[in-house]
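Q: I have 161 residues here and want to know how they pack in 3D. Can you give me a structure?
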Amino acid sequence: MYSAERINEKAAIESGIDTDWYLLDDNFQIAIVASAGGLLPESVSSDLPRLERTIKYFRALPVLSNEITLTDDVCKLIAGYNQQQKDTYLKDVHYMTSRGFYYFDKVVVNAYDDFRYFLKAKPAKPLIIDREDNAIKELLSFPRLKGEFENLIQFMVNGIE
């Protein structure tokens, strides 16, 4: 948990930054988290060059399955969209979820003090991180979530370091 003072310090630097970061669960499954201008865990913000290498590495992974499951909230949100709007909204969600990532995002963009991240999509075939993989070892130090993504609807980033 962050102190109010630390959150204010981090907000002065991070507020408005829109980047992706990654989170592991207890089963070493991985989620991509779209920051949408929100709080970044210390393990992410303390080494932004490593985060850039991690993003490049994960975005280059092959598709594991094109079958993904969108949450009911996302389906309701895009129900009134035309096909082009749906495609645009879901482009990154599908891209990363098809590579085995759970996909979390904020509902309120650029609200630094809103610490909630919500599940948008689940992969049919989750990517499980092999901690012995040399390519992964150099990138490791992902924040960890206690529990499993499979049944998670949301999490609070201010409880993750």
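Q: Anything worth noting?
A: The radius of gyration is 15 Å. The chain has one domain: 4-145.
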